[in-house]
Structure prediction request, 228 residues.
Amino acid sequence: MINYKSEVFQKKLNFYLQLVLAGVSGLAIVCLIMEYGFFLSLELKDTLHWLEFLAVGTMVGQLFLKLALSRDKRVFLQRSKIDFLIIFIFFLLFLGATGIFKIPKVPLFLKNKSSLSLNYFYLLLSQLYILVFLGLRVPQMNKSILILKLKPPLVIITTFGLIIGIGTFLLFLPHSAAPGEHTTLLDALFTATSATCVTGLIVVDTGTHFSTLGQLIILGLIQIGVWD
Prediction:
């Protein structure tokens, strides 16, 4: 008989769940990038939406599975209180959209309560939860980097290189450019580097060349550069 409260089982459970979460998180990121970065058919978008719903279900489900099998549920709840609070907030928004629980702002957003608007609202909730879930895992990534005991200059160079690389990729996406415009890889790299290092230098007109998505990406890179 399996002893669910044994330390060995708990370590194995956490290990396998972390592997599943890593895969699901990667899948969710790919889905979001494909949906908002490329021009896709409606059929492919529907498939991506189902995968995003599956990712949310896995992210929420693993947390409750850990709670059910934890040795000390009170300690686990205390340690994961932010995760459960976020789930509770999103659950209230879900109930508000269905009309079970009245939230003043939700009916204003869903004026006609049509099936299409409800589905779109559920999709936005799912995508927002994915972003919040991944955002909460960033500090854990920082701890993992600290464990490597890298020299500070190397950490700074690696961090900036990673941010610039991600920024270049995002700015190179088709949806990041305004209609009729095309961003070359070199322009995307220079723009991402300039934004991250907050130099103010540009090779293309930011206001006309990039779409709203592209401009938001640039603003995000500038903000990250200021924080660093």
Q: What stands out?
A: The chain has two domains: 7-142, 150-227. The mean pLDDT is 85. Residues 50 and 123 are 9 Å apart (CA to CA).
